[in-house]
Amino acid sequence: MARWAQAHGAAWAGAVRERARAAAVALTAAAAVLPAVAEAQEPQRAEAATAGSLPAVESVGVAPLPGSGLPRDRIPGNPRTLSAPDLARDGRLIGGGLTETLERTSASVTRNDTGGNPFQPDVQIRGFSASPLLGTPQGIAVYQNGVRINEAFGDTVQWDLIPDIAIRDIDVTGSNPLFGLNAVGGAVALRMRTGFDFQGAEIDLSGGSYGRRALGLHAGKQVGNVAAYFAVEGLDDDGYRRFSPSRVRRLYGDLGWQGERATLNLSIGHGSNSLSGNGPAPVELLRQGRREVFTYPDQTRNRLLTLQARGTYALTDALSLQATAYIREFRQRTTNGDLADVEACEDDETAGLLCLDDGPPLLGPGRAPLSAGILGGAPPGAVNRTRTNSTGVGGSAQAVYDAPVFGMPLRAVVGASYDRGNTEFSGTSEFGAITPSRSVTAFGIILDQPDAGIAPVRLRSTNDYVGLYGSATLDVLPRVSATVGGRWNYADIELRDRIGTALNGRHDFSRFNPAAGVTWRFVDSATAYFGYSEANRAPSPAELSCADPLLPCLLGAFFLADPPLRQVVSRTFEAGVRGAVGTERLGLNGRLRWNLGLFRTGLEDDILLVQSDIQGRGFFQNAGDTRRQGIEAGLSWRNDRLAFGLDYALIDATFRTGQRLPSPNNPFADEDGAILVERGDRIPGIPRHRIRFDAEWRPIPPWSLGGNVIYNSGQYLRGDEGNQLGKLDGYALVNLRTSLRVGPGVELYGLVRNLFDKRFASFGTLYELGTAESLGLGLSDPRTVTPGLPRTFFGGVRVVF
């Protein structure tokens, strides 16, 4: 491990050093922009001293900025809060982390390995996605310290860039318009550590199966009314599939000042990651070996620098102001090796040349047709490359009032936000040949035939988002609280083609989304709630640039047309009961928590990415109305030595509009390559039933044993919106963990993932069999899936100073 740290430390340090000077200048500028305000701290959430205890949670944020928290029993929904110990319980870097903790602790959350990389999952909450992949409809708003981190170009969420070790706590809520665009299905709000809430130092050193090795370090120090915090993480992983290595480097720092009525914090975040995720492979190929990949390479390089200044000022005991300003620079490079829709020309006039599938001859340098001999008998392939450079700036401010009105307790928040994103996107497809190992060797020939839907693209997009929001919760009776609120969203999106004019366009969307609800604490230990909310999702620049079926784009890569799309509007109802009670009367020293709720979210003009009849290409379109509805139920009990939790979620996700959708790779497609989708057909990629069971036992104070079972039922494949093919099989995974304190501040821990080595897949789609024939693999099944993680072992040591 020492040799690994020495070998990789210099490279990582160089990546940070080159931006250090710019970071310092920008951080100072951000501080100057923010008024001399700082926050009247909301009550700190107590962080448990050991991994086996529960955090004491007093409130849940109802808006992105800190300071907007409400007691849980006054929120007309079913929010969840996770603490830093929840993240550490399964190992932050090697077997836990943010997204796995979300899945382990809530049956409403699941992870789909859409791209095949463990650090870039598609996270679903109530059937809505927060995904790193362009092309996935994004239905979750994600915030870090009050800053929206859905990326400017495609509203994607790059989970790999979030430093797990620096997270203080997390709120996961259902649909709430106060969180702005994309909160149609819910929101995730991350609050990061500062030197005021974390003092001392901790080193986390770990490793395990498939070459996983990781190092995390963070430290905090307070001197008087000034505090500093710093965190760094590094991880290397060879991947459980062939040709799938990953490297993760993350940094986070915070410098804070706290006065009698105010605080001011300046923070910096940096990430530089290289991730290989070779995606789905044909089911017939995976029968030969679960580590197999179809074509490669498939690599994503992410780089992030973010600077933030935030704070509030308490004007009076009842009224406080909060504000934040940020600069966010995101860079992404992707390289994808794929099959090419190219074959030997069949006409006598073009014999000996290469032709695009059912199209004209393939042109090379000087617009000359390419000879079939260039391939040397190898199958045709393509290397698709993209570059995304986004810079985001913005800020938000709010006022919070907390005092009785006419003798009735009132807590109100009003605020405004502005976010601007500028993105330069470019993409090319380079012709090549597929090797015997199914990698793609490029020839240096850029495909440029717009009439066939294949051409380089250079696009500049600018998006301006404005939001005005407010909410008020009034205790109309001693045990009854009523909430009303809403948010007005405005989105202005401008597209400029940097090569021609085909992509030029300007779109604007606006909407006011209301919310209302009531809670009733019918006994001291239980609360009933009912809520209604609306939210909207404006089409992203990526979706608006790829909405023409005649000019499809490479999935997650190219954008070649600009027809209009309508914004998505959600309407959510939810109702339920929840409570917590001590169990001493039953002779058990502990606390029991429970919840039972129903929800229904209907989407109007939902946007889907559908397949084109050109291999690897697709386009976005409004697909009528869809609906997600279901049940959430949970039961947990904990004392000092024993704990268990059981969660169940039913997610019924269906199309509500009958229609024909393009799906040319589906064996049931008609002669036009379309399938019939009827009202009530299930939306692919969303398991209907989910169960989470977690247990932990502490036989002696230094030692803990625990584990969990995660069950997801079957799901339909993408491309089978008509539900005519069989489902992916459901699966249950068993995971174990243990930790042992071997001395003051020293803890050893171990993890086993997928104990029984279950063969499973959490994502599947369809591919074009005709194009794959050139590989000579004898494939006859169009289904392709991403294999799940096999049995793995991890271990580590955590040292606290």
Task: Outline the structure in words.
- The protein is mainly beta and 801 residues long.
- The chain has a single domain, classed as Beta Barrel (Maltoporin, Chain A).
- It is 7% helix and 52% strand.
- The chain is built from 6 helices and 43 strands.
- The strands form 8 sheets. The protein has a 22-stranded antiparallel barrel. A 5-stranded mixed sheet has the order 3-9-10-7-8.
- Strand 25 and strand 26 form a beta hairpin.
- The longest helix is centred in the N-terminal third of the chain and has 32 residues, at 2-33.
- The protein is globular and about 90 Å long.
- Mean pLDDT is 87; it is low at 1-57 and 554-563.
- Residues 249-755 form the TonB-dependent receptor-like beta-barrel domain.
- Keywords: Cell outer membrane, Membrane, Receptor, TonB box, Transmembrane, Transmembrane beta strand, Transport.
Helix content: under 10%
The mean pLDDT is 87
Per DSSP, the total helix count is 6
CATH fold description: Maltoporin, Chain A
Class inferred from helices and paired strands: mainly beta
Membrane topology: Multi-pass membrane protein
Organism: Craurococcus roseus
Main location: membrane
Subcellular location: Cell outer membrane
